[in-house]
Write a structure and sequence with these properties.
The complex is a heterodimer of chains A (466) and B (186). By secondary structure, chain A is α/β, with parallel strands linked by helices. Chain A contains 15 helices and 19 strands. Chain A has a 5-stranded parallel β-sheet. Chain A has a 5-stranded parallel β-sheet with strand order 17-16-15-18-19. A 4-stranded parallel β-sheet of chain A has the order 11-10-9-12. The longest helix of chain A is centred in the N-terminal third of the chain and has 17 residues, at 77-93. Chain A starts with 7 loop residues before the first helix and ends in a 21-residue tail after the last helix. Classes of the chains: A alpha/beta (466), B alpha/beta (186). Chains A and B meet through helix 2, helix 3, helix 5 and helix 11 of A and helix 3, helix 6 and helix 7 of B.
């Protein structure tokens, strides 16, 4: 009798079940904000980190992006203590860490894939809800809380209730100017911010297969914004090409084994969703959840719920206002959603030879020290600087405003990050989520523009471009 | 972890949907390295709005998708430190739900119409043993994973339970552990 057809999720789950409901964790990523209480609890209980060799730490949430290269240089006292605490905990428990000043430091969800420690078929957790990002490489990856961080540190396992399964299939192909960010924002708009609650999601279909590795990270990254804890994409030639030659990647890659990591054709999902990728336009959020989103050529919709009414009031927007008439004070290009080299190249291509509008303050925050180095090698920093962007160092930065990069009350920002919650980027700040290309064009024009019919000036190719 | 059994008394109501953890505890308070003292910062910005009124009762009744967004356990810590022992809503975000159960705070999902009815009531009793919420002379059942219920009723520590599976864990590592990146060797 043939084996029961299974999903990619089922296969990874089964390979990691120590006993029913107890999952072995192949990689535990740690950062400064959600770990100090977990290390403290270990210390109190006299426990060790079971597998430091499967644990990796970096400092990202809190760090200033001003080029500080040591924790001692952090001006904010609480932030400094938190980063220093992480460094001390890692030293005490033998956990490798890439802190400020390391060329490997960066946003935890950028450095994992970049260093090649994120690989197909693994289970990966981190005390951060955007851990689903790593699912783009065919790993089962999800965010956990601090008590679970402690549990993984102590046991290298997690107790988990098996989620239901959902597949989101994308037909058609993305049009010109429509990116992975628009694809996931459009999806969240369609299924809602609660649509994925209780589900492990798999993204599939021709539009997903056509995406670059970086585009796939962007899609999986925002799974949590649809309520899903994990989002996975079957590994393929794009994945293997991305991984080949990276620091921690095996050589040669076990391509044959990894190629078996896919959902069987007959496997059934608890829920199937279809999205027409060809029908999507560049997306702009207008409200205070990522599901409050519209096409750039649309207008701010009439509120249908008290929540939407409240959102419009907070955002100081009136129903019926064309999205393209929304003027901006700030532009933020960065975050674990859109700060990889491909994102920066795409944004740079929009601004080359142009100037940021005088009414706008714009910044670019590379996702990692490595991304920064690569971008500078390609001359992208000069493209941004000449256009009037502030070129920063790696970190989470204004995605959540735990460092000095924040919006002032009332400021309106086009942001490539993942959350437009009230006050997310600074108390009273108003965030609109968009793709790097849309953010870059908005910086130039001082308002949102439809990049599909916006022709960026063509300058010379940057030095060292591939 | 304290045992959870019956939680009874007046209720507090926050009738909003999609309440994210950034609202429950804004980022500036995540810089603390302690686990305690977050209650004073609960709903820090919303609490300044005129008409805001949220008594520290033991039961909070609220809207759909409560606790969405960031995985910060600081959100359940703040709610618990403020005084809540149980939360009732039509639905909870996955990570938030799990985080609550790790600290012995009980999330109770009820159908939307029952949550609305409960909001109109003054008090309630949540009985984890019987898996029901009692209010206005009625008894409404709720669902919870049996293992989780057992753990909460007995105040069991997850890590302690897992360490009892030490042999299975060692066998897994010896026989089935996936070859993978060795972070200490990079």
């Amino acid at each position: 009798m043939a084996a029961e057809p299974t999903t990619l999720f089922d296969k990874i789950w089964a390979a990691h079940e120590v006993e029913p409901g107890l999952l072995y964790i192949d990689l535990h990523l740690v950062h400064e904000v959600t770990s100090p209480q977990a290390f403290d609890a270990l210390r109190i209980a006299g426990r060790k980190v079971r597998r430091p060799d499967r644990t990796l730490a970096t400092a990202d949430h809190n760090v200033p992006t001003d080029g500080s290269s040591r924790a001692a240089q952090i001006l904010d006292q609480l932030s400094r203590v938190q980063v220093e605490t992480l460094e001390r905990n890692c030293a005490e428990f033998g956990v490798p860490i890439y802190s400020l000043g390391s060329e490997r430091q960066g946003i935890v969800h950028v450095i994992g894939p970049e260093l090649g420690v994120t690989q197909p078929g693994m289970t990966i957790v981190c005390g951060d809800s955007h851990t689903a990002t790593h699912g783009a490489m065919g790993a089962l990856a999800f965010g956990i809380g601090t008590s679970e961080v402690e549990h993984v540190l102590a046991t290298q396992t997690l107790r988990q209730t098996r989620p239901r399964s959902m597949r989101i299939s994308y037909g058609g192909e993305l049009g010109f100017g429509v990116t992975a960010k628009d694809l996931i924002l459009g999806t969240i708009g369609q299924i809602g911010v609660e649509g994925g609650v209780g589900y492990a999601i798999e993204y599939a279909g021709e539009a997903i297969e056509a995406l670059s590795m970086e585009g796939r990270f962007t899609v999986c990254n925002m799974t949590i914004e649809a309520g899903g804890r994990s989002g996975v994409i079957a590994p393929d030639a794009t994945t293997f090409e991305y991984l080949a030659g990276r620091l921690a990647a095996p050589d040669p890659l076990p391509v044959e084994e990894w190629s078996e990591l896919r959902t069987d054709p007959e496997a059934r999902f608890d829920r199937e969703v279809e999205v027409d990728a060809g029908a999507l336009s560049p997306q702009v959020t207008w409200g205070t959840t990522p599901g409050m989103v519209a096409g750039v050529s649309d207008s701010v919709p009439d509120p249908r719920t008290p929540g939407e009414e409240r959102a419009l009031e907070y955002m100081a927007l009136e129903a019926g206002t064309p999205i393209e008439e929304i003027a901006l004070d700030r532009v933020f290009i960065g975050s674990c959603t859109n700060s990889r080299i491909g994102d920066l190249r795409a944004a740079a291509a929009m601004v080359r030879g142009r100037r940021v509008a005088s009414s706008v303050e714009a910044m670019v925050v590379p996702g990692s020290a490595n991304v920064k180095i690569q971008a500078e090698r390609e001359g992208l920093d000069e493209v941004f600087r000449r256009a009037g962007f502030d070129w920063r160092s790696a970190g989470c930065s204004m995605c959540l405003g735990m460092n000095p990069d924040i919006l002032a009350p009332g400021e309106r920002c086009a942001s490539t990050s993942n959350r437009n919650f009230e006050g997310r980027q600074g108390r009273g700040g108003r965030s609109h989520l968009v793709s790097p290309e849309m953010a870059a064009a908005a910086a130039i024009e001082g308002r949102f523009v439809d990049i599909r019919d916006w022709e960026p000036a063509r300058g010379p190719e940057p030095v060292g471009a591939r | 972890m304290d045992r959870v059994d019956k939680i009874r008394g007046p209720i507090s109501v926050l009738n909003r949907s999609d309440v994210d953890t950034d609202q429950i505890i804004p980022k500036q308070f995540l810089k603390r390295v302690e686990r305690t003292g977050f209650g004073q910062y609960l709903f820090y910005d919303w609490a300044k709005e005129p008409g805001w009124d949220l008594d520290p009762n033991e039961i909070l009744v609220t809207g759909r998708n409560f606790g969405c967004g960031s995985s910060r356990e600081h959100a359940p810590w703040a709610l618990q430190d403020y005084g809540f022992k149980a939360l009732v809503a039509p639905s909870f975000a996955d990570i938030f739900y799990s985080n609550c159960t790790k600290i012995g705070m009980l999330p109770v999902p009820l159908p939307e119409e029952e949550v609305e009815a409960l909001m109109a009531a003054q008090e309630a009793e949540i009985d984890l043993e019987a898996e029901v919420v009692r209010f206005s002379g009625r008894e409404v059942p709720f669902e919870i994973d049996p293992d989780l219920r057992h753990r909460l009723l007995n105040g069991l520590d997850d890590i302690g339970i897992t360490l009892q599976s030490g042999e299975a864990l060692e066998r897994y590592e010896a026989e089935r552990e996936r070859a993978g990146p060795v972070t200490t060797a990079l």
